[in-house]
User: Which sequence fits this backbone?
């Protein structure tokens, strides 16, 4: 009898949970703009993810409460856990793509490369633009083949070019690059391999020796690689790693005597999570970033006043206010908000759908004046997208780790996008041929 | 090493005396109800992955459940099928989709045969290591050589054009039909395969391969056949996973976690059973979604989202252990027991 | 030539780190026939517990002691809730149970102690040490020393104490051990606790090298080839296997890697293990299973 009682209680609980999940609860209305947040709060990348969402949510809250929404249209957001996998990313997207209780979706951020790839074609069919800031398909820069994919701000190709330009700056000019050696220690995945092509082209142009050394996933043992680096004796090392391979690389480099202040990390190797485990070995480490660390930009002062001090921040650990990942959340949210604002100027001050959001993204033009008004001057670069150019930026700043904090050591370094564009066009043309697509023509008004 | 199986012996009764109402009901659901009332979310995010995972589980079950060769490299063979099908569709588009799928499966079968060669000397847990070697090697292969993904910058492949006899299959409903028909066809052939001499030999090898050899079954040849057939199924499942479900996939869509996921499916569903794969796939793919919806509805907003996710992970692990304790032969045995009890229930009065 | 020797020595030392992880597996497999996939999560949990306590200001030795207590409690719980109900089940069922267990431990670890990446400072500087013309890593040398100490302690435990002899009896023949009155449950609790402590040592060393973060539990995948080459049931085998895998991996990456495009470490160790299996199907020091009809 006891067993059956237990079973019936379990059954009742099960039924309750099923019913609860079936009963809809209205949390939004058709006069609001829906911001889906595809997040990851568990798994290997949770520690960085948590800060990104905090940055996004804090900025959205600021827009709602202090600026009264985007031109009066309030924002509503809902989180959906993706665990940084493609399947859950797809499930979240399909769940929210039609909006929330009538509030439409204008732009979508997949927040994770696997999900971004899986959604890249669905987005074209559903007409919802994907913003993949600092990841995603580099070919999508060519908006004629990828109308709904936006690798805004900085692709890995541009990053490689910014790196070379920074090194040229440090060496005293592009002519000084001839004969120098730049070794790239890269994570042996599609991510790490993206810069193989551009670096080869740049090495041909400027005459430096391009050494590429792969690190197999997850990269927690790198003595073989850094022994090779020591043998090659390069002038600079470009660290194209992420996750645990970054601190291990920095530590191993110190062990093999390579000066850490000549190691420049990529944008996904540029946060405090990447250098803290390396301890003292990381002092002097440089990193490229399109969203530098720091809590004294104008927007941070505003957020402190209106959100943090009121206890409304999504951050559980306030020490992370102004960290690289928190700031990346701020920048991501700002791009989305400005895109909607730009679109509202054409379509009216009301909630917008995906096609209108895309128009907004393609006509996004953020100059210094606008950055100043937003409070993002120095934190975000100027962006000017167009139908043919879905990246619109292509600059990065370099910051240096002193053991406790990041300090900026350069201004915005622009990439030589004209040089790399043919590489991108070649790949987007190959994709169009593969799919049998005709690239659209840009008239400037779609 | 003995594996708990839901079907201990080969079925002696080959003539079905009862009308399979359950099966007919599910087929009606699949062919009539879903196409009429299915919306994008149900088709794209729930049903298609469920069907493809069932097929993958079926493939692994043929090798591990029926032949007793433990394999943790299922995802590697799925990757072979996906990339091979992509190669056919890209470079020989005039062959058409069904031939490309078949070609992908055949190439995957060849690769499976290759990695199954060690099974003549190595058994049990140690064989698991060769399958892991296959998994890691294949994953490395499909990242390292850009020829496989047509030199794209992100290492991803996407179906050039999913079309069958002129019909464009690139809609959720189209992909659903493609997946459903492929899975049904392959399941039907698997059912016939395990009921034939081949299936009986496999089960003999699983139960006691020394005795099977003594009785005269060519053990080495059937083990290799098991690897080949299993990889054929896994290859087609991989192609469907990449093109009918994800749309765009890369080698990392077929990593070690995917292999573990499929192994989970067959163990929880029931090894040595065909229906068990579907039950297991439903458990593995639908439970997290259900937990996430329930969590959202019951606690949305009040409990930290991160903690909620950790809780779900713990619940998932606990459920796996509970199922293993309560019913080692898998959910399918539980369902069979339930069905038998329901059949007897009116007779108790 | 120096480069070759350096790579070889560096590889051998790196291999001892793998051995440390493998020893935990061997212990559990020897005594209960279970391949404990959750060893990686136990490593992570142990390292996280220690780091959390240490960061809160608890002194080094006390934090270590408390973590050991936590691992012992964990072992007791695992034995009671997972192993006892699954006694006599097949190897693969137990393996799956440990897979489920690893989910639970990971969820608990992240839920209780957060997902923040922590630095672990054991006070060992990772600076180069020069022995003649060869450059060695001080950290690796200390790790190797720790492995030697651990193996010596375990060898003493197994050979000189009553509990150790009981453990060997259980590993040899469980039914016979039961029939002479050895308390199987107690043995399993002890073995899992010791494996937990070994995991703590390994976790601390790995954590010091790469920081305590989620991917710590992935070292499990590196330990498997070590176990295959050395044999599942031999601690000495774990050491030898680790040395072989470490050396081979490093040498292969440097000399064979460039021919294949580099990055061959994920699968090279496994292919090596495969080759070993052809020659010695039970590993170098493992016990050959006798087939009976």
Assistant:
């Amino acid at each position: 009898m006891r067993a059956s009682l237990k079973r019936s209680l379990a059954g009742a609980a099960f039924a309750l949970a099923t019913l609860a999940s079936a009963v809809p609860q209205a949390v939004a209305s058709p006069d609001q703009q829906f911001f889906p947040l595809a997040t990851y709060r568990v798994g290997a990348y949770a520690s960085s993810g948590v800060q990104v969402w905090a940055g996004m949510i804090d900025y959205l809250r600021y827009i709602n409460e202090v600026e009264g929404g985007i031109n009066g249209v309030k924002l509503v957001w809902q989180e959906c856990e993706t665990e940084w996998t493609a399947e859950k990313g797809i499930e979240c997207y399909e769940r929210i793509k039609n909006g929330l209780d009538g509030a439409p979706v204008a732009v979508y951020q997949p927040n994770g490369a696997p999900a971004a790839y899986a959604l890249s074609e669905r987005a074209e069919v559903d007409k919802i633009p994907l913003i993949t800031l600092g990841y995603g398909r580099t070919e999508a820069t060519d908006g004629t083949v990828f109308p709904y994919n936006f690798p805004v701000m900085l692709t890995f190709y541009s990053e490689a070019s910014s790196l070379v330009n920074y090194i040229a700056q440090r060496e005293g000019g592009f002519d000084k690059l001839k004969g120098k050696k730049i070794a790239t220690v890269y994570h042996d995945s599609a991510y790490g391999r993206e810069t193989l092509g551009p670096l080869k082209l740049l090495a041909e142009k400027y005459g430096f020796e391009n050494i590429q050394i792969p690190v197999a996933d997850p990269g927690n043992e790198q003595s073989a690689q850094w022994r090779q680096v020591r043998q090659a004796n390069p002038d600079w090392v470009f660290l194209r790693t992420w996750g645990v391979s970054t601190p291990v690389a920095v530590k191993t480099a110190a062990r093999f005597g390579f000066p850490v202040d000549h190691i420049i990390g990529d944008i996904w190797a540029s946060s405090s999570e990447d250098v803290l485990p390396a301890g003292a070995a990381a002092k002097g480490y440089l990193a490229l970033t399109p969203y530098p660390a720091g809590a004294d930009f104008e927007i941070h002062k505003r957020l402190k006043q209106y959100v943090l001090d009121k206890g409304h921040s999504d951050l559980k650990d306030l020490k992370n206010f102004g960290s690289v990942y928190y700031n990346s959340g701020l920048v991501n949210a700002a791009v989305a908000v400005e895109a909607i604002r730009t679109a509202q100027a054409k379509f009216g001050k009301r909630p917008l759908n995906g096609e209108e959001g895309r128009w907004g993204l393609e006509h996004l033009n953020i100059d210094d004046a606008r950055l100043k008004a937003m409070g993002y001057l120095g934190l975000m670069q100027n962006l000017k997208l167009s139908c043919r150019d879905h990246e619109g930026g292509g600059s990065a700043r370099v910051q240096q780790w002193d053991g406790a904090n990041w300090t900026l050591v350069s201004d915005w370094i622009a990439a030589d996008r004209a040089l790399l564009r043919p590489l991108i066009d070649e790949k987007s043309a190959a994709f169009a041929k593969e799919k049998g697509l005709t690239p659209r023509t840009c008239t400037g008004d779609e | 090493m003995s594996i708990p199986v839901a079907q201990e012996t080969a079925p002696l009764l080959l003539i079905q005396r009862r009308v399979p109402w359950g099966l007919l009901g599910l087929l009606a659901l699949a062919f009539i109800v879903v196409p009429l009332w299915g919306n994008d979310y149900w088709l794209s995010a729930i049903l298609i992955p469920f069907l493809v995972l069932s097929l993958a589980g079926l493939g692994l079950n043929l090798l591990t459940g029926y032949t007793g060769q433990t394999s943790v490299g299922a995802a590697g063979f799925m990757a072979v099928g996906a990339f091979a099908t992509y190669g056919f569709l890209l470079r020989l588009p005039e062959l058409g989709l069904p031939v490309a799928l078949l070609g992908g499966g055949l190439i995957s079968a060849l690769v499976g045969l290759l990695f199954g060669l060690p099974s003549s000397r190595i058994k049990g847990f140690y064989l698991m290591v060769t399958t892991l070697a296959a998994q890691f090697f294949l994953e490395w292969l499909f990242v390292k050589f850009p020829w496989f993904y047509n030199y794209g910058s992100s290492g991803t492949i996407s179906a050039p054009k999913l079309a069958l006899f002129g019909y464009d299959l690139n809609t959720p409903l189209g992909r659903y039909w493609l997946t459903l028909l492929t899975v049904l066809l392959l399941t039907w052939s698997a059912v016939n395969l395990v009921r034939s001499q081949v299936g009986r030999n496999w089960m003999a090898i699983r139960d006691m391969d020394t005795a099977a050899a003594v009785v005269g079954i060519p053990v080495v040849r059937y083990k290799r056949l098991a690897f080949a057939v299993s990889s054929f199924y896994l290859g087609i499942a991989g192609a469907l996973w990449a093109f009918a479900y994800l749309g765009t996939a890369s080698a990392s869509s077929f990593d070690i976690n995917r292999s573990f996921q499929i192994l989970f499916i067959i163990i929880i569903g029931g090894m040595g059973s065909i229906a068990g794969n579907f039950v297991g796939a439903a458990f593995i793919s639908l439970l997290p979604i259900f937990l996430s919806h329930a969590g959202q509805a019951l606690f949305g907003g009040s409990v930290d989202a991160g903690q909620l996710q950790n809780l779900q992970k713990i619940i998932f692990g606990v459920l796996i252990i509970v199922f293993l304790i309560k019913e080692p032969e898998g959910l399918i045995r539980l369902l069979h027991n339930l069905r038998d009890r329901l059949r007897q229930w009116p007779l108790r009065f | 030539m120096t480069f070759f020797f350096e790579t070889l020595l560096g590889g051998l030392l790196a291999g001892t780190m793998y051995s440390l992880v493998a020893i935990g597996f061997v212990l559990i497999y020897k005594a209960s026939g279970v391949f404990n996939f959750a060893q990686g999560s136990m490593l992570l949990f142990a390292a996280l517990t220690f780091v959390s306590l240490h960061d809160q200001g608890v002194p080094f030795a006390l934090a270590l002691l408390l973590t050991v207590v936590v691992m012992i409690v964990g072992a007791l719980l695992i034995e009671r809730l997972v192993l006892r109900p699954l006694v006599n089940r097949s190897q693969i069922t137990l393996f799956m149970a440990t897979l489920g267990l690893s989910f639970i431990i990971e969820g608990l670890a992240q839920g209780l102690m957060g997902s923040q990446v922590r630095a672990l400072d054991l006070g060992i500087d990772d600076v180069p040490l020069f022995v003649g013309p060869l450059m060695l890593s001080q950290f690796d040398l200390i790790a190797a020393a720790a492995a030697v100490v651990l193996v010596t302690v375990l060898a003493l435990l197994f050979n000189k104490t009553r509990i150790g002899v009981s453990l060997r009896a259980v590993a040899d023949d469980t039914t016979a051990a039961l029939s002479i009155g050895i308390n199987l449950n107690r043995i399993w609790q002890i073995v899992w606790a010791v494996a937990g402590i070994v995991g703590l040592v390994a976790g601390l060393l790995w954590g010091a090298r790469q920081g305590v973060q989620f991917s710590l539990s992935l070292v499990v995948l590196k330990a498997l080839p070590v176990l295959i080459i050395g044999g599942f049931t031999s601690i000495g085998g774990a050491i030898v296997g680790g040395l072989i895998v470490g050396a081979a991996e490093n040498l292969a990456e440097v000399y064979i890697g460039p021919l294949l495009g580099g990055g061959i470490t994920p699968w090279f160790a496994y292919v090596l293990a495969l080759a070993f299996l052809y020659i010695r199907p039970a590993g170098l020091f493992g016990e050959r299973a006798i087939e009976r009809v």
